[in-house]
Amino acid sequence: MPELVVEIHVPLTRDPSIPEGEYAFPWIDDITDRLSELEEDGVASTYDDGEEFGENYVFFITDADEAALLAAAGGIATMPGVPLGVYAMVTDSDAEEFGLGRRVDIT
Length: 107
Description:
The protein is an alpha+beta fold. It has helices at about 25-40, 65-75; strands at about 5-10, 45-55, 55-60, 85-90, 100-105.
């Protein structure tokens, strides 16, 4: 039976406060840390490692109902430094590609 998965799509927007030549996407590490905290707290689990997909970086969460997963995605979208334009895709573990499912705008 497929698992409910929420993909969190974050635009790959360079942080303008970061000097040229330095890592431009520190929010990726911040989100990864937050996902670990959610896992430790039993709120949601990381389904797979995050990865670049088109113009977005995508994170995957599971092991909760849709409302809890979308609430977690909303919390991530409003973290300091996370670019605007975050959206979620509600899908399942049987999806053959990213970005399939129902889109939910977060920010």
